[in-house]
Amino acid sequence: MQRSWFLFLAICLLLMSSCSNSVTDATGKLPDEKITLKVADSVPSTNFISKEGIVYWMNRVKELTDGKVEFEYFPSEQLGKASSLLELTKSNTVDIAYTSYATEEMPLTEVAALPGAIPSSVKGTKMYWKLVDQYLLEESYLSNGVRPMFAVTLPKYQIITTNKKIKRLADIRGLKLRTSGGPIEVATNEIGASPVAMAAPEIYTAIERGTIDGAMLAVTSYQPYQLQKAAKYSTTNANMGSFIATYSINEVVYQKLPYFVQEAMLQAGEETMQHFSTYLDDHVEELTQTFEQEGMDMYELDGETLGNLNEEIQKTWDDWANALEARGYAGHEVLQRFEEIKQNLGN
Question: Do 200 and 317 share a domain, yes or no?
Fold first, then answer.
């Protein structure tokens, strides 16, 4: 009888422990010392990447550690330009940063940004994170001294233009279009336009000054940069690629953290990817209707034009892989791995 009572008590304690909302260390206790980490990115604090991405993640880490981990957050390039954030993280000037623009150092990470690569933000995020787990973690991130906490693929990129509506493929030729670089830049060349690589915060001014005729980016990115006021036209059914919003931590810093903090960060990362990607997909249709009501021409490319466009941009895949192979990177291998993941996930 006594043995049964102790067994019952042990089961109750186990259930109570599993229901806890906090991640504890190996002893089942949270340490008394607070940990403060410095976080930096290039987007305004009002941007969805900030609110639904890194801020959501930081809040979950705080909750999971019962406030034992705190963050000092520096948005809007306060500590450095977008292109410098990987170096700032590697040098431990900051602990965690938005490493999405470090494509020169981590070119294989752009595979999910290829035109036609992802069907949606939710599915694209799952595909990309699987590739990170199987291959890119060691090949791209840890080799650069950082570890990704979460990564989300933005919705399919559309073509936004100031004065010219795209009715046929020839209408794109000669246009100066902003790209985020990498495979989208290659695709822009394929369709006869002139790519102009720049960070998203610079697009509005470039359109106003006539430096560019338009841009390629997700519908969810128009409002944060007020592009619906700067441009007149936007496609709604193109798939010109994507952009991977990634936040990474200095690997040395990560390894020095208590185990319970590491576990909290990983759990928060999984939750953030699900939350953020769902948010993005849900808002595409809503924003499309809003922009139409505000006077922007949101239109679908007709079947023939879309087919011709997709045929041209599909060539980007091999061009991108071949260019990386010439630089010593396994471009074709990462393409094959990504395609296998896509098929296994039923996309």
Answer: yes
Considering the domain architecture, whether residues 103 and 203 belong to the same structural domain is answered as no
pLDDT in tens, 108-135: 999 999 999 999 999 999 999 999 999 9
Per the domain annotation, does 287 fall within a domain?
no
Tokens (6 digits) for 126: 């799952």
9 pLDDT band, cuts 50/70/90, is very low
89: CATH: 3.40.190.170
Count up the domains in the chain and report the number. Answer: 2
Domain hosting residue 261, numbered range: 35-110+120-152+244-282
Q: Where are the alpha helices (DSSP H) in 162-302?
A: 182-190, 203-209, 227-230, 251-256, 259-293
Residue partners of 259: CB distance under 8 A and separation at least 6: 25, 26
d(CA 222, CA 220): 6
d(CA 196, CA 140): 25
Q: Which residue is associated with the tokens 């999910």?
A: 112
Strand partners, 40: 74, 97
Assign 176 to helix, strand or coil.
Answer: strand
Instruction: Output the pTM of the full model.
Output: 0.88
